[in-house]
Amino acid sequence: MFRSHRSLALVSVIWALVGLLTLAGCAGTPVGQAKTLEQKVYALYGSFVIIQEQVAELTAEGSGLNRDTQLQLIRTVQRGQPVIDAMLDSFEEYEKARANLSDDESAADYIETVTASLENWVEQADSLVNSLRSALRGGNP
Amino acid sequence: MNVAEVVALALQSLSLLASNPKLGGGGLKKEEISELLEQFAILVRGGQKTWEELKEFAREVRDLADRGAQPSPRQWDLFRSRDEAVRATLQAAKERLTSEGGEGNPEREEGGSEVRSSGETTPEAPGESGSSEENPET
After folding, report:
1. I need a labelling partner for B44 at 20 to 30 A (CA). Which of A9, A100, A103, B114 fits?
2. B2-33 pLDDT, tens per residue?
3. DSSP symbols for A33-93
4. Are A43 and A31 in contact (CB under 8 A)?
């Protein structure tokens, strides 16, 4: 066992995430390919699910990673979940509002409001990855 | 940055780590360094697999964008069911790892969030916080 197991686990996680995110950046991110708001939500959600699945694989029994590294990886993705959930909730509201379109002026205002809210959540979900990367650069996962 | 560069940087950091007592190294034994290298190798392989999957998914999104189409309900459902399954898997893994750590584990109360179906998450409104690294549950 390492004398400073936690610090080594931390460095391992930092590199894991730098690696994951750098490689993800190389792919030409899914959200970068999206043109509409719906496509962006879908791209961000799918990317997040894919990253979660990879972390699940890395933290499965017998993965070979040490315990502290596995726990750090799980916590990192779980911390992002509420932002993704809020984006999806906002998207649901947006879809409902669009489905109930009417000529009413207040309906138009409502659509405008839910669209703005969704755009905000999309932006926040998108910046989740970037802020994580910045935090990692500062050595503060 | 490609995989080789990531590996090279990982190795550089390993050398630094192994030689610097302030970073927890300095007294690393050969077998410890080899264990750490193995950890890096697992992580880099995982990173590469994610990259491949994201690349494939980016193609799917680009195809949608090129056709001016929206994701179908089937595409959404597929990710929703994958999401639900993976969150349960992660939570189970977290509980297993935490219990393996025994009593007095200081990490026990950190991080985590309820699954989406609980409907109890209360994330911050957009723009209220510049950091997504804070635990939204607290």
Report:
1. B114
2. 555 555 666 666 666 666 666 655 556 666 66
3. H--SHHHHHHHHHHHHHHHHHHHHHHTSTT----HHHHHHHHHHHHHHHHHHHHHHHHHHH
4. yes
What are the residue boundaries of the structural domains of chain A, listed by start? 7-136
Interface of B with A in 52-91 (CB under 8 A): 53-55, 57-62, 64-65, 68, 70-71, 75-76, 79, 82-83, 86-87, 89-90
CA distance B95 to chain A (A): 9
B132 interfacial to chain A (CB closer than 8 Å): yes
Nearest to B126 by CA among A98, A92, A107, A128: A128
DSSP state of B124: P
* Contact call for residues A141 and A73 (beta carbons, < 8 A): no
CB contact under 8 A, A64 and B100: no
A6-35 exposure pattern, b = at least 16 Cβ within 10 A, e = fewer: ebbbbbbbbbbbbbbbbbbbebebbbebbe
Indicate the residue type of B111.
G
Could you tell me if the ipTM is greater than 0.85?
A: no
d(CA A102, CA A121) in angstroms, rounded, equals: 25
Contact indicator for B121, B114 with CB cutoff of 8 Å: yes
- Residue A130, pLDDT above cutoff 80: no
What is the distance, to the nearest Å, from the Cα of residue A140 to the centroid of all Cα atoms in its chain?
Answer: 18
